[in-house]
Amino acid sequence: MSQSFRINTNVGALKAYDALAKLNAKAQTAQLRLASQKRINNVADDTSGFNVGKSLDSKVTIMQSAQRNVGSAQDLLATAESQLISMKDMITQIRGKVADASNPTADKDAIAKDIKSIAAELASAFNETKFNETTLLASTANGAGAGFTFQTGVSSTDTIKIDYANGLAGTASGSVDGASVAGISVAVKDGLEQLGSVASGTIGNITDVTAGKLDGLENAIDASLGAIGNYSQRLMAKQDFLSSAISNSQSAYSRLFDADVAMESLNSTKAQIGAQAASAMFAQLNMAPQQVLQLFG
């Protein structure tokens, strides 16, 4: 007997119902992806893709934090560099005043006071040069003595230690024309104290400030500026790498998670048309067993 004459179980209608259910599920999946703009809305959509994508997303978050760390390190170095250049200019100013003191008609007492005043400002700069309450030129609890370590990659071991103040920071301390300074190196202490010792306005006393110890202070500043330049170059390379790595990781994440809107629109339309056809056929197949009634006419 033909299957269409089975009235207890309408196999054809059941198959049409199954096809309709599958088409409706495809339409719903496509519509959900269009609504969320996501290809993967739950783990079952793509288990391996979900795991890979979440791993990429985690790495991007860490790299973005590392990128901010690099930016902070660059700002810290820029702050220290600006002050050190200013200090070097002050030393040059002192050398100019020493040269002025060789003029027999110069007011050597005024020159000596100027030198001591500049020396006090130099001493103050070691204490007061800070970046977000972090001392940049002297050793303190959170100062430059031990260097500054920043995480610059995904791994916690991917770090850069910025230590530019070896010749500046230390354990020595002193006072220059009323300005106290601590956490400085011996070379810095000796240079500052030599400037502060210019008490009298004699040419011999003034020219003594250029004899050795001031050179040591200036050499320490020059060494720190050179180190800052080297660290800045490394940080720029880190910044370029992180920008590229973040962009590439986000691109890979997008391919896994972001929906192809055009394709999902096609899938939705196709599934809806198929569901309409399946609904019509289901209705016809559901009524097919009524042909049996003709046998009782």
Secondary structure layout plus pairing:
Layout: H1 11-36, H2 47-100, H3 108-128, E1 130-131, E2 134-135, E3 148-151, E4 159-162, E5 169-176, E6 179-184, H4 186-196, H5 203-207, H6 213-257, H7 261-287
Antiparallel strand pairs: 1-2, 3-4, 5-6
Q: Would you kindly provide a written description of the structure presented here, covering whatever features stand out?
A:
The chain is mainly α. The chain folds into 2 domains: 3-37 and 259-296; 82-256, f41 fragment of flagellin, N-terminal domain, CATH 1.20.1330. The chain is 64% helix and 9% strand. The protein has 7 helices and 6 strands. The protein has a two-stranded antiparallel ribbon. Helix 2 (47-100) runs antiparallel to helix 6 and helix 3 (108-128) runs antiparallel to helix 4. It is rod-shaped, with a radius of gyration of 39 Å. The model has no long low-confidence stretch (mean pLDDT 86).
Concise account of the structure shown:
The chain has helices at residues 11-36, 47-100, 108-128, 186-196, 203-207, 213-257, 261-287; strands spanning 130-131, 134-135, 148-151, 159-162, 169-176, 179-184.
The Rg value, from CA coordinates, equals 39 Å
Shape: rod-shaped
Which percent bin holds the helix content?
55-70%
Structural class: mainly alpha
What composes the largest sheet? 2 strands, antiparallel
Mean pLDDT: 86
CATH architecture of the largest domain: Up-down Bundle
Count of alpha/pi helices? 7
Pick out the low-confidence regions: none
How many individual domains? Answer: 2
Strand-residue fraction? 5-15%
What is the H/E order?
HHHEEEEEEHHHH
In what order do the strands lie side by side in the largest sheet?
A: 1-2
Number of strands: 6
Intertermini distance: 19 Å
For this structure, what is the CATH homologous superfamily of the largest domain? Answer: f41 fragment of flagellin, N-terminal domain
